[in-house]
Amino acid sequence: MKPPRATLFRTAAALATLALGAAAVPAVSQTARATAATAATAEAQWIDRATVVWKVEHTAATAEELRSAAGGTLRLAPSALTDAQKAAYPHLADRPAYRLDPRDRDKAATALRGPLTAVQRAADDRDHVLHRTGVQIPGVLDDLYAGRARRARLGPVFHGGRPTLSVWAPTAQDVSLDLDGRTVAMRRDPGSGVWSVTGSPGWRDKPYRYRVRVWAPSVGKTVTNEVTDPYSTALTADSARSLVTDLADPRLAPAGWASLKKPKAVPLRDARIQELQIRDFSIADRTSAHPGQYLAFTDRGSDGMRHLTRLARSGTSYVHLLPAFDFGTVPERRSDQARPGCDLAALPADSDQQQKCVAGTADRDGYNWGYDPLHYTVPEGSYASDPDGPARTREFRRMVQGLAHAGLRTVMDVVYNHTVAAGQDSKSVLDRIVPGYYQRLLDDGGVATSTCCPGTAPEHAMMGKLVVDSIVTWARQYKVDGFRFDLMGHHPKANILAVRKALDALTPAKDGVDGKSIILYGEGWNFGEAADDARFVQATQRNMAGTGIATFSDRARDAVRGGGPFDEDPRVQGFASGLFTDPNGSPANGGRDEQRARLLHAQDLIKVGLSGNLADYTFTDTGGRRVKGSEVDYNGSPAGYAAAPGDALAYADAHDNETLYDALAYKLPTTTSAADRARAQVVALATATLSQGPALSQAGSDLLRSKSLDRNSFDSGDWFNAIHWDCASGNGFGRGLPPAADNESKWPYAKPLLTDASVRPGCSEITGASAAYRDLLRIRTTEKVFGQTTAEGVQRALSFPLSGTGETPGVITMRLGPLVVVFNATPSRQSQTVPTLAGAPYALHPVQARGADATVRTSGYERATGTFTVPGRTVAVFRASGAVGR
User: Which residues form the Pullulanase N2 domain (predicted)?
Assistant: First the structure.
């Protein structure tokens, strides 16, 4: 989850940067031909109806103008950006600006509906062109149309049984509706740029597409695109057509939908979240009647649902579903999905044949994580029993019901920061309706691809509106309880706050949901063309502090696991993987003194994480200094950045990068037993589970889930990704060398591990780790001291009494109100004496004292000296006598 993320989608390799300019000359008028002929880039930016920004410098010998095939010539004069314009476009603040001649400004709307170039010519010779470039138009489109377009209701909207279909296409020369094979004219509103038509009740559930005639700079000609609706509410199979569907239609509601009662809402600061991919959940579950489908979550007696129910009873509050909207890389009909033709189970554990066989069908199989959005507000069809029509809507709703019946609320992973394709690609929806608007463009007019795919521009009014409208639809119509934003740092902070405001306005009486209870969090990474607030104030870790919207914190994650996701040598150790206390011999870890210093610094990072990553939380670090969380270094950035519990989300693993078990497989010494590997896993999970603020874990991590060391399994099929709920099926380790594309450089490290019997856990290790994790989860969710509501409350309640120059490497002792928690990551039994607690009555927490882990029950406390003794690779929680939880 830490950028730069590896290539996510099989389509990405085919997506070159798309230039906004003409390579081919269309068969249009002579003016259009001259306009388009040499505009191979789009370096001029028309930011509002009166202003163009362009890097060319005006001189007495030059004249600048916009030339349009539709609007003629628009004259420009040198000018300067106002302070407001500089604030709106910080990346353009130092560039030359030009003002449109007032006499030509009424030509703008017409000029935008055809080929358009910016030209610098000799002042005394109109035909002597010095510079020519295409023109980026999102700013002027927003200025001309967004005021009214923002208020428009787009897509299919029903009134009295009659649907109105509306699409925003301000640059289109014509838009018509292809409704079930016949053409219906649409009307353009000149003030908003919205085209619409109202039909009869007989249109309900009919397939449709928009037929848009528009100038497409990426191919340099006027095209007629047949495009599905960006605001689709339903689709035919493989997203070929949109459907005129009313989500309020009672026929789409499963029994009990209107009266569905969700588990009590858990505030974000206390949320404990399981991250889960829909297909992974059940595809290998022989007890599920609906493997790989939404309906698997209605199979209450399946192994998977029974396990989720156990987690819910222990304190898990949310299931976070990897993308479940319509995505672009999976054949939706099962009959069209290819399957590997090899006997994968018969191949050796360290063979490269499994990955070759899986890769051979990857482009045609039923598997992908889904970070390749096609339609943002329709459930993905490959998870439905029938992808053609209403089943995907009903069955998504039944999935939400099934999770609610298990005691869990539903979070959706949403990916509004990019599209699967742009330009004239057949899977480009937005860009074929309003070319050059919805995608974020670079200085030369190419589409930004720092997200690994064509990036979108939520800073543009109508892309921002699409984000808000889509989220509200999922909340109102599908009763989704939370949203996780992929690469949220590529969104403006204002856009995410607009989402929050729109959700807060939803009420049970009016909308059937309490929008204020819906949680929001995301990846607040700071990179790419938007980095460091270059284009707008981003929704990054630092900037989102204090908003109540959480960002993933990589600080403690890296400290716990060791190293980072992209180390050449995967054996770099950390707190839970034996750094200094159980070295694995890799030269990447450095010498003994270096290891000790790194371990102690990792412990400081974990302490900051346990505080909820609070910037102002003050404690004594391992160097003996009194520091704030923001003063602890994390690769040159402040470790602490949160303003309150709930601003930072703790985790030890997620879908990106190796699973926690696989990371520890690389990092722990090869002599580590399976039992000790399981214990190390629980220690790592505990650092997030017992933190202030929200925490997330990848589904199956409590069961020691492995993907056979695959670092980037987005397209690795069911063989490497499926969760095995039955311990007799193993944990997924040893299913062959992981796919070469993202893992081949690590095969020399992976090969000997995959055949090592001590690395592969059995049922006792798998079930034992899960039970120990659930005990810790139960403590976290029943002891109210873990749920501090303010930074001041955390400061009062939380301390690390043994932190300082004498701190034990590999052991963190945390005091939290009436609790003392000892995180012993070392392989040996450790005693921690807290002199200030001498005489205080502590005992092992009742949950652990009666729990499943026999080892933690051997923990001891000596009252006379205040000494806590904890076995190796164990997290023990002690509670003062007389103290009670919630």
Answer: 41-143
In single-letter form, the type of residue at position 375 comes to H
Distance CA 662, CA 287 (A): 26
| Paired tokens of 203 | 């249109």
- Given a contact cutoff of 8 angstroms between Cβ atoms, the answer to whether 480 and 400 are in contact is yes
**E strands present in 596-748:** 618-620, 626-628, 633-634, 637-638, 648-651, 695-698
pTM (2 decimals)? 0.95
Catalytic residue among 238, 285, 523, 765: 523
582 is catalytic: no
Strand partners, 814: 821
- What gap in Å lies between CA 375 and CA 428, rounded to an integer? 10
Residue with token string 């994480």? 609
Separation between Cα atoms, residue 555 and residue 858, nearest integer Å: 32
Catalytic-labelled residue, pool 486, 653, 658, 807 = 486
CB crowding 856-886: b at 16 or more within 10 Å, else e: beebbbeeeebbbbbbbbbbbbbbeeeeebe
Contacts of residue 204, defined as CB under 8 A and 6 or more positions apart, other chains included, come to 161, 163, 244, 245, 246, 249
Q: Is 523 a catalytic residue?
A: yes
The H or E element that residue 413 is part of is: strand 409-414
Contact 549, 500 (CB under 8 A): yes
Per-residue model confidence as pLDDT tens digits over 297-330: 999 999 999 999 999 999 999 999 999 999 999 9
Spatial contact of 121 and 133, defined as CB atoms under 8 Å apart: no
List CB contacts of 494: < 8 A, sequence separation 6 or more. 464, 536, 537
- Please, are residues 497 and 488 in contact by the beta-carbon 8 Å criterion? no
Q: How far apart are CA 76 and CA 64, in angstroms?
A: 5
pLDDT in tens, 572-598: 999 999 999 999 999 999 999 999 999
Query: Which residues touch 748 (CB under 8 Å, ≥6 apart)?
Result: none
**If the chain, 886 residues long, is cut into consecutive pieces of 10 residues, what is the mean pLDDT of each piece?**
36 31 29 44 97 96 95 96 98 98 95 97 96 98 98 98 98 98 98 98 98 96 98 98 98 97 97 98 98 98 98 98 97 98 97 98 97 98 96 98 98 98 98 98 97 97 98 98 98 98 98 98 98 98 98 97 94 98 98 98 98 98 98 97 98 97 98 98 98 98 98 98 98 98 97 97 98 98 98 98 98 98 98 98 98 97 98 98 67
3-class DSSP state of 182:
strand
